[in-house]
UniProtKB/TrEMBL annotation:
The keyword Nucleotide-binding applies. One of its GO terms (molecular function) is ATP binding. The keyword Zinc-finger does not apply. This is Urea ABC transporter ATP-binding subunit UrtE. SMART domains: AAA. NCBIfam families: urea_trans_UrtE. Keywords: Amino-acid transport, ATP-binding, Nucleotide-binding, Transport. Belongs to the ABC transporter superfamily. The lineage of its organism: Bacteria, Pseudomonadati, Myxococcota, Polyangia, Polyangiales. It comes from Sorangium atrum. Residues 2-233 form the ABC transporter domain. Signal peptide: none annotated.
Length: 233
C-alpha cells in the first residue's frame, strides 16, 4: 500500500528527516512513536505532500506520488487528519462534512456516506446544524476524522488524534480506528504521544529518532526496555 523510500526533508538547511523508509499495509494500524522533535509530524506532512522532500520516494499502490500535490494525493486515496483538526469553525457540522467530498474526483455528496458517518459518530448527527466551533475538542476531532473518512481513503494519516480530548471520546476514537483496521481495505499510520492509546490501537510500531526509523516491530513485542531506550525523556 504505502511505501516510503529513503525520504529526506529539510527546513531550509536543517535536515529533519534523513533516509526514512517504511511501509504500511492494508488492514494494519501502524503507530509512529518517538520523542518530541524527531520528525513524526514532518513525515506525515511529507507523505501528504505538504512538505517536499529533497530526496526519496513516496508510492501508494505502486503509483509514484513524490512530485504530486496534496490535492492530487488526496484524490489518489490519502486521507490526512492533521494535529489541531483543521475544521471550519463557522460552518455547521454538516457543512464541514460536505467539504470532505471536495477532494474526490467526483465531488457530488453521497447521502449514504453521510449517513454512515452519522452512525459511526452519533454526536455529529445530534449536532449536525450546530457551528463546528462550538463543539468540544473531542467532538471536533470526531468531525475531522469523519470528514476524511467520507472519501473512503486507501491510506489514513492521523496526527495526535487524542490531543486535548476527554477519555470517553478517546476510547470511542480508538474503537473506530481499530474497526477500520479490521475491515482490511485501509492502511492507517498513527502518530501518538499517548503510549497506552497507541499500543492498544495499533498492531505494529515504528520508532523514530534523529530523523530516521530506528526500530519497528509488532506491538505485542513492545516492552518497557524499548520505551526506556527510545521514548523516555
Amino acid at each position: 500500500m504505502l511505501v516510503v523510500e529513503d525520504l529526506a526533508v529539510y527546513y531550509e538547511e536543517s535536515c529533519i528527516l534523513s533516509q526514512v523508509s517504511l511501509d504500511v499495509a492494508p488492514g494494519r494500524v501502524s503507530c509512529l512513536l518517538g520523542r518530541n522533535g524527531v520528525g513524526k509530524t514532518t513525515l506525515l506532512k511529507a507523505i501528504m505532500g505538504v512538505l517536499k522532500p529533497r530526496r526519496g520516494k513516496v508510492t501508494l499502490d505502486g503509483a509514484d506520488l513524490t512530485a504530486r500535490s496534496p490535492s492530487d494525493r488526496a484524490r489518489a486515496g490519502i486521507g490526512y487528519v492533521p494535529q489541531g483538526r483543521g475544521i471550519f469553525p463557522y460552518l455547521t457540522v454538516r457543512e464541514n462534512l460536505l467539504m470532505g467530498f471536495e477532494a474526490k474526483s467526483d465531488a457530488t455528496p453521497s447521502p449514504a456516506a453521510l449517513e454512515e458517518m452519522m452512525e459511526m459518530f452519533p454526536i455529529l448527527k445530534k449536532f449536525h446544524a450546530r457551528a463546528a466551533g462550538t463543539l468540544s475538542g473531542g467532538q471536533q476531532q470526531q468531525l475531522s476524522l469523519a470528514r476524511v473518512l467520507l472519501r473512503k481513503p486507501k491510506l489514513l494519516l492521523l496526527d495526535e488524534p487524542t490531543e486535548g480530548i476527554q477519555p470517553s471520546i478517546m476510547q470511542e476514537i480508538g474503537e473506530v480506528i481499530k474497526g477500520l483496521g479490521k475491515k482490511g481495505d485501509m492502511a492507517i499510520l498513527l502518530v501518538e504521544q499517548f503510549l497506552d492509546f497507541a499500543l492498544s490501537t495499533a498492531s505494529e510500531y515504528f520508532i523514530m529518532d534523529n530523523g530516521g526509523i530506528v526500530r519497528r516491530g509488532s506491538v505485542a513485542e513492545f516492552d518497557d526496555e524499548i520505551a526506556r531506550e527510545f521514548l523516555a525523556v
